[in-house]
Write a structure and sequence with these properties.
The protein contains 19 helices and 15 strands. It has about 400 residues and is α/β, with parallel strands linked by helices. The strands form 4 sheets. It has a 6-stranded mixed sheet with strand order 1-6-5-2-3-4, sandwiched between helices. The longest helix is centred in the last third of the chain and has 17 residues, at about 285-300.
Length: about 400
């Protein structure tokens, strides 16, 4: 079987690695690895997909993943990638979120029969004796080295709290604990975690005389300069109750042409020859590659049935045989009486959330970017009423990609 490190390199996962040749050698045999997940919300989001996919690749290659839910470190807050201190959640909030993340990760990773492990670092961190921790663990850390880490250095100008300053020690302790109790020899994570990963490897070397390793992934920015997983609506969640499978599918199909090949390599399991073939498509043909990306990504997160449903709805709404009847499209219920009276288009666009304000809606429509049932809205105050229904719904669209179905009730 192909070494999983070469799979990571081929598909674009590797940003930094502690020792390339030693890690390749390590991964020639079954290895236990871990990634931590921050339980500051009840759902993971698209920004977490890269580490999740890496654990799936590891498991497919015969290795044992550990998913660490940061119930303990979440009480402190990771300063990495943040310009200000995170809000400190209560232990009750952290535990509730941690349980939700465990369930969510189980959709991607097989935890049966010890094939993977799920742990919460609150189980060992919250019982630490502070004085003993300082004497046994803290003495191995040098403040000048800690401040040189990017995660801390970037925060010195805006202010780094003492509680956040302890985060590196706690994450390093996690790595040592997982090595000691589970034989974990590889930690993976985003490149903003590099300093924390090195700290854990160094602590384990000092305490146990053992060499363990780290690997980081690139921090993904789309071709349009947006952080992966962000849209004008906010985060794209993996929880279907927060981001519907249809909206999830639309997130992927709306990616910039220049990102399609890269994202096919990272977020699907298609063979790389197929990835490269799809990536070579140009012009109108790139839509086919985007449909593959959207379907495969949605299938992994929500299953085949939901992915097929989202694909069919998208093709109905935007394909040549566009219809307005698909039940998977975003909907907005409206009273029959209000529609009977008629409502100006710009008010309806604002009311349904396609535009943030009525002035924005007026500009959109005046510039030709507002559509009703596939036809351009002629004037911003054009009355839209029950007589405009097609197949018992109204389909509003703002620009090329944002739309809503209005259903009378």
């Amino acid at each position: 079987m192909k070494n999983v490190f070469h799979i990571f390199e081929e598909r674009g996962f590797v940003e930094q690695v502690t020792d390339r040749e030693l890690v390749i050698e390590l991964l020639e045999n079954p290895t236990t690895c871990y990634i931590g997940f921050d339980p500051t919300a009840k759902s993971l989001h698209v920004g977490n997909l890269l580490p999740i996919m890496s654990l799936v690749h590891m498991q497919r290659a015969g290795h044992r993943p550990i998913g660490v839910v940061g119930g303990g470190t979440g009480l402190v807050g990771d300063p990495s990638g943040k310009t200000e201190m995170r809000n400190i959640l209560t232990l009750e909030e952290i535990n509730k979120n941690a349980e939700a993340l465990k369930t969510q990760l189980s959709r991607f990773i097989d935890f049966s029969y010890g094939k993977a492990i799920m742990v919460n670092n609150a189980d060992w961190l919250t019982d630490l004796n502070y004085i003993e921790f300082l004497r046994d663990i803290g003495r191995h850390f040098r403040v000048n080295r800690m401040l040189a880490a990017e995660s801390y250095r970037a925060r010195l100008e805006t202010g780094l709290s003492f509680i956040e300053f302890n985060y590196m020690l706690l994450q390093a302790y996690d790595f040592w604990h997982l090595f000691k109790h589970y034989g974990c020899r590889l930690q993976m994570g985003g490149n903003d975690q590099w300093g924390n990963i090195l700290a854990g490897a160094d602590l384990t070397r000092r305490l146990e005389g053992e060499v363990i390793h780290g690997l980081t992934f690139p921090l993904l920015i789309t071709s349009t300069g947006i952080k992966m997983g962000k849209t004008h609506k906010g985060a794209v969640w993996l929880d279907a109750s927060l981001t519907s499978p249809y909206d999830y599918y639309q997130y992927w199909i709306n990616q910039d042409d220049g990102d399609v090949e890269r994202f096919l390599g990272l977020f699907t399991f298609l063979p790389m020859e197929d990835v490269r073939r799809l990536g070579r498509l140009k012009g109108a043909d790139i839509r086919a590659a985007k449909e593959v990306l959207a379907y495969e990504a949605t299938k992994l997160c929500h299953g085949r049935k939901e992915a097929a449903h989202a694909r069919d709805a998208s093709q109905q709404l935007f394909g040549p045989d566009r219809a307005t009847s698909s039940g998977a499209a975003p909907t907005y219920p409206m009273g029959q009486e209000e529609l009977d009276q008629g409502i100006p288009a710009y008010i309806l666009f604002e009311k349904t959330g396609l535009c943030k304000t009525r002035s924005e809606a007026r500009r959109l429509i005046s510039q030709g970017g507002g559509y009703l049932n596939g036809q351009r809205v002629q004037t911003f105050d054009q009355a839209i009423s029950i007589s405009d229904l097609q197949q018992d719904v109204l389909l509003l669209r703002a620009g090329k990609k944002r739309y809503v179905r209005i259903i009378p009730e």
